[in-house]
Specification:
heterodimer; A: mainly alpha; 15 helices; about 75% helix; about 0% strand; globular; B: mainly alpha; two-stranded antiparallel sheet; about 70% helix
């Protein structure tokens, strides 16, 4: 029962351990499928065909993956600074509010001006909502985990109030804003690629996907190739050593949280600016929490985050198709898989490392 | 006597709304006092609510529901314990996992078994905890002015798990504060090394506390599904686990103040429902959302040290490593 840290070669640590926990999580999901009287293999086949079997399926998969890239990166950046940001939902919500206000106020502006401003407003809104817990932890010593949870709920009530009283569509019973001005929304991918001679079916995949890819590169540059990223990783590894080296852990905490929140704002960009073209209640739909699983599985590295986001995109889109054929298997299966993955890749990491070490014949006591 | 009637009704619904919070707050108290941070209260209550609704529907007995609810929450608590105690995993990560697992599993299983979008069939008759009329309640209402009416309206007329919840507070306060087991639980949350040195199993005590936490969450979840409502609805805990966590922080990890905080949050909730669409003199229309957000905002302000200090148990969140 005493789980001494197991030394593993780097390839096993970065690739094999996450892979084993994914496999185990899918196994658990398979058992759940079995438990409700369906065939897991048939379900898997349906899921994969739904997600990857057609150009349309792939479009949907990448659209979902866009959300997970943003929320996964958000959690990952905070992780590097030793912070556990579970406030992605709230940050994306506030980002959406800021973006909606900007969009609706910019109806006069041409798209080339309105779209970047709307994206910036989303980033600023998310950054602000994450900066508050960052500031509270850095300056007042309150733990980021608790404050981000609380702020999730505050954001959830805030958006209900604002949609009803301030920015809601007049005369509508639905909790949503009026449609954004037509020039101030993101272009769908099939329209964007049409001039290049690529004929794609119409899917929600839009240019936010390109933004997500840029975010992946930017985060990689930030974390592994910049002075700030070095400071973030140092604080995450050892705040006292960082302070000794002249890095201010307080400043890094606040900055890392703000960047994390800005990235979470990407969820609002993809969902509201890219697909729905208006702000609706509950547009975050739990993507913020799945981002935790994405970041844990991807080991905080942008490449890992991209792969994990793709996996969850497949699960989401495939799950949607699957629930058409098998009404008993709803998309909530993805939430279960996410939960199991968070448990396996995050909390039971020690157990899985031990298992892998055992199989590889390492980590034995001399 | 109109205002008295209003007051009684508000206090009555305060208690009804507080019961799940009280159970979950006591649960969180046990776990965190033993040094295991638990943000999975929400998930454990949710799965208990689901399991109790299913069992009560199948057997037609609310007590079977209570048993199933407790077992389901206990199972999740032990998973959390396995990750946090045996494998020294990150307790917060594990808590998030517990919440997601419960949120997903309850909807999937509910949908697969009953095909009603995740809800269970409604519970009727003995499958639900009925309202208990305490002795002399109708008599006191007739014959004792004011107090008799409050007794009948506020104290009497709740379901069994509600009285169980108050009993839990009493037992928690007594056991944690006045018994050897409670002292050891508190010690293991402050200084596990000292407990270990005394030859007492740190892991054993922590598993004990986590198990008690599961049982209490089970009672809270069962109350939600089999007493307050008549059946399970997807995501029916609606953040109560986190409000309970806020209450624990608010109470500085002490049982009686935690009860007070839960009642306060319950009162806020009751007032929020009451104030819907009511214009207050001098203030105007109070947005319900502002009152709903108040517990969360109060916790943030408290944690920031603006109104007193929150001091968690020293070893909370830290896995115990013997060799250190």
């Amino acid at each position: 029962m005493s789980a001494a840290p197991v030394e593993l070669p780097r390839w096993a640590d970065t690739a094999l351990v996450p892979l084993v926990s994914v496999a185990a999580a899918l196994l658990v999901a398979g058992l759940v499928v079995l438990g409700i009287g369906e065939n897991p293999l048939e379900a898997t086949a349906l899921l994969l065909r739904g997600a990857l079997g057609s150009a349309e399926g792939i479009g949907f998969t990448l659209y979902y993956a866009t959300n997970f890239i943003f929320t996964g990166l958000a959690v990952a950046v905070a992780f590097h600074a030793g912070l556990f940001n579970i406030g992605g939902e709230g940050q994306a919500t506030v980002a959406g509010i800021a973006m909606a206000v900007a969009c609706l106020g910019l109806s006069w502006a041409p798209g080339i001006l309105a779209v970047p401003l709307a994206v910036l407003a989303a980033a600023a809104g998310g950054a602000l909502w994450a900066f508050i817990p960052g500031w509270l932890q850095a300056k007042r010593g309150s733990h980021v985990v608790i404050t981000t949870i609380m702020l999730n709920f505050v954001a959830a009530t805030l958006i209900v109030y604002l949609l009803r009283e301030a920015i809601g569509k007049p005369g509508s019973m639905q909790p949503e804003t009026p449609d954004f001005p037509a020039q101030a929304v993101l272009t769908p991918m099939h329209q964007l690629l049409a001039p290049l001679g690529l004929e794609l079916p119409s899917t929600p995949l839009n240019s936010a996907f390109l933004l997500a890819l840029m975010a992946l590169v930017a985060v990689w540059l930030l974390i592994y190739r910049s002075r700030l990223g070095y400071a973030i990783r140092t604080v995450g590894a050892n705040p006292r050593a960082a302070a000794y080296a002249g890095i201010s852990p307080a400043a890094v905490t606040m900055i890392a949280m703000a960047i994390s929140g800005a990235l979470a704002g990407g969820l609002a960009v993809n969902e509201a600016l890219g697909v729905q073209h208006r702000l609706v209640l509950d547009f975050t739909a739990g993507y913020g929490f799945v981002g935790i699983a994405v970041a844990l599985m991807g080991r905080g590295h942008p490449v890992g985050v991209a792969l994990a986001a793709l996996l969850f995109g497949v699960l989401y889109q495939g799950g949607a198709e699957l629930s058409f054929d098998k009404p008993t298997i709803t998309r909530d299966m993805v939430v279960v898989i996410g939960g199991v993955l968070i448990l396996f890749a995050g909390a039971l990491d020690g157990l899985f490392r031990r298992l892998v070490a055992g199989v590889l014949g390492m980590g034995r006591k001399p | 006597m109109d205002w008295l009637q209003t007051l009684a009704v508000i206090l009555d619904s305060t208690i009804r709304l507080s019961i799940p919070l009280i159970c979950a707050a006591m649960a969180g108290l046990w776990s965190e006092r033993a040094g295991v941070v638990d943000i999975g209260l929400e998930g454990k209550m949710l799965i208990a609510a689901f399991a109790s609704a299913v069992a009560a529907f199948v057997t037609g007995s609310a007590w079977a529901g209570l048993g199933a609810g407790i077992l389901a929450a206990l199972a999740l608590a032990l998973i959390h314990g396995f990750a946090a105690i045996t494998w020294r995993g990150n307790q917060i990560v594990s808590g998030v996992a517990v919440n997601m697992l419960a949120a997903g599993l309850t909807v999937i299983l509910g949908n697969a078994w009953y095909g009603q979008g995740g809800r269970t069939p409604s519970l009727e008759g003995a499958a639900r905890f009925g309202e208990l009329t305490l002795p002399f309640a109708p008599w006191a209402r007739e014959h004792v002015p004011i107090l008799g009416m409050l007794y009948d309206e506020v104290v009497s007329g709740h379901a069994v798990p509600a009285y169980l919840a108050f009993l839990c507070v009493l037992v928690t306060a007594f056991v944690l504060g006045r018994t050897r087991f409670g002292l050891r639980i508190r010690a293991v949350g402050e200084n596990p090394a000292a407990v270990d040195t005394a030859g007492i199993s740190v892991a054993g005590l922590r598993y004990g506390a986590v198990a008690i936490c599961g049982v209490l969450c089970g009672i809270g979840g069962t109350y939600l599904a089999a007493a307050q409502s008549a059946g399970f609805l997807p995501h029916m805990t609606a953040g109560r686990g986190f409000i309970a966590l806020a209450a624990v922080i608010f109470a500085n990890w002490r049982p009686w103040p935690a009860l007070g905080a839960c009642l306060l949050f319950g009162l806020l909730d009751a007032v929020a429902i009451r104030l819907q669409g009511v214009t207050l003199p001098g203030i105007g229309l109070v947005p319900v959302e502002a009152i709903q957000a108040l517990p969360y905002l109060m916790t943030i302000v408290l944690l920031a040290g603006f109104i007193g200090r929150a001091t968690p148990p020293k070893a909370s969140g830290l896995p115990y490593v013997k060799e250190r």
